[in-house]
Every structure is written in structure tokens, then in C-alpha cells.
User: What shape does this take?
Amino acid sequence: MITNKELEELGVIKSAAGVFVPSDFCFVSLLNYYQNNHTLTDEQHSVISDFLLELEVDLGICDGSKEEIRKFKNNEGTYNDAICPACGKLGTEIVLENKMLSIDGIKLTIPAVPASRCLKCGEIYYEQEALDFIDKEVAAFHESRRDEE
Assistant: This one.
């Protein structure tokens, strides 16, 4: 369980009037925070990440606009004739990947990263735009860690 004090440190304020969540708040950061103090399986982590992303989209507080997220979700599962860089076979599908990283022993989840998955070998790879987004999120994570020190 995350305490009220820990929520306040993340910018969430609970009171008798309700809960204040900053407009730039990322619910997945709660999951990342919780994961560092408790053990979740990768499957549990992924299911919770998906739910929290949907909540962020519905509340309009996620990175990117609802239209951008919905565009990726609408394309999810579509196929194309790209060649897999791992096995060289033809055919990939577009997926939204919950990218899980471990940085200095801390698990970090970046939800809804667009990727391509090979239909033959299952290899997942990212376009440059997605790699830039991952780099931006990792940099923000490092910045938040510096702020804590």
C-alpha cells in the first residue's frame, strides 16, 4: 500500500474534498514506485500498466493526446509487409508494448510504446520515434531520481 505521504511526494493530494492529481501526473509512476517495494510478476505488472494507461487516456492526463494514443491503439494488431531485422522473414504486426526496463535495480515501465512484432520469430523492434520516446522517459526518470537526492 502506498501511504498518503508517499502520494504527496508524487504530487497527489488527498483531502475530505477529494483527490487532486496534477495534470502531468503519470499513474504508471505509482506502479513503478510500488514495484520497487513489492514483488509483482511481469504479467501482473503488464495488466496493471494497461489499466492505468487506459485510465490516463480517459482522464486526459497521459503523455500525448487522446487522439495519438487512440491512433496507436486503432493500428494495434494490423499487419504490414516489413522484413524482420532478426530473422529476415516478411510480415510484422503493430503492437503497443509495455516496455519494462531495470535501471540501477529499479523497475521502470513505459506504457504503450508502439512496436513491430515479427509474425514468424516473435522479435519485437522499435522505430526511431519510439526509441526517442523511450530515451525521453528514461531521462525523465533519471531527472526525478536526482530531484529526490
Summary: Residues 128-148 form the longest helix (21 residues).
